[in-house]
Known about the structure:
CATH architecture of the largest domain: Beta Barrel
Radius of gyration: 46 Å
Shape: elongated
Strand order of the largest sheet: 3-12-15-14-13-16
Number of domains: 4
CATH class of the largest domain: Mainly Beta
CATH topology of the largest domain: Elongation Factor Tu (Ef-tu), domain 3
Distance between the termini: 104 Å
Order of helices and strands: HHHEHEEEEEEHHEEEEEHEEEEEEEEEEH
CATH superfamily of the largest domain: Efflux pump adaptor protein, beta barrel domain
Helix content: 25-40%
Amino acid sequence: MNSDYRKRLQIAMLxxxxxxxxxxxxxxxxxxxxxAAEATTTSPxxxxxxxxxxxxxxxxxxxxxxxxRYANAELxxxxxxxxxxxxxxxDARHFAKLSSPSRGRIIAVDVAAGDHVHAGQRLAMLxxxxxxxxxxxxxxxxxxxxxxxxxLDAANAALARGxxxxxxxxxxxxxxxRRRTASADAQAMLASRQAELRKWLGMQQRxxxxxxxxxxxxxxGALARLGPGDSLGAxxxxxxxxxxxxxxxxxxxxxxxxxxxxxxxxxxxxxxxxVSERDAAAVKPGQNxxxxxxxxxxxxxxxxxxxxxxxxxxxxxxxxxxxxxxNPDDALRANMFATVTIDVPLGHxxxxxxxxxxxxxxxxxxxxxxxxxxxxxxxxxHTGGYAAxxxxxxxSGLAGGTRVVAQxxxxxxxxLMKGMIPDEG
Length: 425
């Protein structure tokens, strides 16, 4: 029994040992074998990626179907474009806040916000408290001038008569000298009265800026029948424009401190743009500006720089640039948001091609160059600096005068990428 037991125990131990050794071998093999991802160092797909051909060939039929158009790469004065944001504003040279020249009461307001008015048109009628007194002073001063003229005429006549009588002994020389002194005094009195009249006329002009007679053909009724003591005055449009805010109504007491209404000539507008400090040094008055307004996404407005601020804004790091834009159809309105590009001359020529000539080929900008007989090569180019008016500047990769495909270049790209071109016949 003991012998059999020992034999069975030995056999069992040998079996367990074999299992342990086998497991160790398997574990060692597993650790030594690298993962499949790590063992592969190159991608078969990368090795087999097709390379784009250097050219495209089209049949005569395909050429007729796609309707290619060609253009020459142009040499033009080089321009750098500087982009900025800004806000549309009134042209301050043609914007007026109109108020009463003196304290008074509004009799009538003849216009409303949005009305188009003409220079010389009456905008409001006023009862100006000071105007009646000034008109009375003008009347009195005018009468005084008339009296002084009559006195001078009489003194001059007496002097002339005395000059004739002295040689015959009709009057003494002393009388002649007295008459000469009287004439000089009358001349001085007339000058004084005329100065007084000019003073009151000037004050009346300030209170009543324009003549309310028939010059403009606009003024009738009460203003046409004014007398010397009347206090009626008027606000008159100083130029053609559009009424903005109307801040008073009939019956209101007004003075020169508060505007009654605003008037703006919208034929030109400003854009107050903010240009970064690093670009502002290159911006000068007279440079061309292209503006895009959010309200008109398919339209651009052309203008020019008229002023560059003398100092930067420390909080934003920008410099104010004022641009002037024609506004013939009143499309531009104050406070509209705008983006502008300013054309800064580089001082040398640059190569420009039509935008339609540029295609993206595998992430690179390229143009197609005709080589004759339906054969086209493509060339990578680098753009930058200027892009406007349907033209883009080529910084490198293309010489001026090179003939390129403009309209229809997309079909050449399609043929290059797919080895085929659609038949539009």
